[in-house]
Amino acid sequence: MVTVKYASELDPLLELSLPSDWLVAVILEPGQAPADSDRPEDRLLGQLLSSGNDQQIVASRVTFLYCRGFEPDPETPIRDNQISVRYDSENAQYELSSVLAETTVSTADGVIEWVDEQFPAVETFVNTYLTLIELADDIHGLGQTGIRGLIETFETLDTIRATDLDSLVDVPYIDEENATALQTALEETNNIDLSQPTPLEQELRTVDGPLILDPQRGPVSGELVPSDSSNPKYRPDTFSATEPDDRELR
Questions:
Q1: Domain count for the chain
Q2: Residues 24, 69: contact at Cβ < 8 Å?
Q3: Looking at the record, which segments are called Disordered (predicted)?
Q4: Measured at the alpha carbon of residue 217, what is the angle toward residues 74 and 126, in degrees to the nearest 5?
Q5: Tens digits of residue pLDDT in 69-98
Q6: Rounded (5°) CA angle 205-210-215
Q7: Residue 155 located in a structural domain
Q8: Does residue 103 belong to any structural domain of this protein?
Q9: Which residues span the domain enclosing 169?
Q10: What CATH number did the domain enclosing 162 receive?
Q11: What values do phi and psi take at 59, rounded to 5?
């Protein structure tokens, strides 16, 4: 079990009431990997960062994770189901990013307002992506790059369905043939049945409270301690049903 110090300025975000199918995780900084890690690079990096430095490393980033969109294709997983918040202590501000936007704000209230706006936007992006990926299986020449371009340009399935062909073809990697096929598929299928949630997605929905997330290993067990306290505030556990190597949460 690892003890993770995190910037206390992140506390309001860990306490935020989340929409259904969302969770929040504190992201380990380099050198905060578990002491019992079986990865030599973890131990070496920890030694290098702590050598001659008595100051404890403090995690400065949290990520909000949408439970859909993990590994739609095992060979090319997407990372668009995340909203990232990093506290920049040097400039006393929060750096915010999602698949749709980036900005900085100076207060936790500002972060919460921005994140609340991003929740539905990211959900729409991910769900639209998953739907188009499923339809693309039967459309020659329609790949992930073209699909991302369509979503970034038109945002929703309804807009793509209603847009004229010339506008669709203006999107890189979209041509008249695959654009026509896509619109036909969308017109014929009003209610597209997405694939069943993966075991990981189902397990994520059971999480109660913040996680500790190692970008290389996935969720880890431990204690979360605010930087202005010596006592643990949260004790996240890893998942029980999935092996660490299968948890593609990076």
A1: 2
A2: no
A3: 211-250
A4: 45
A5: 665 444 444 568 899 999 999 999 999 999
A6: 90
A7: yes
A8: no
A9: 125-188
A10: 1.10.150.20
A11: -70, 135
Query: What does the pLDDT read at residue 123?
Result: 93
Amino acid type, 73: D
Cross-strand pairs, 96: 85, 103
Q: What is the dihedral of CA 237, 107, 102, 127, to 10 degrees?
A: 50
The verdict on 205 and 181 lying in the same domain is no
State which of 188, 214, 232 marks the end of a domain: 188
Give mean pLDDT, residues 96-114: 96
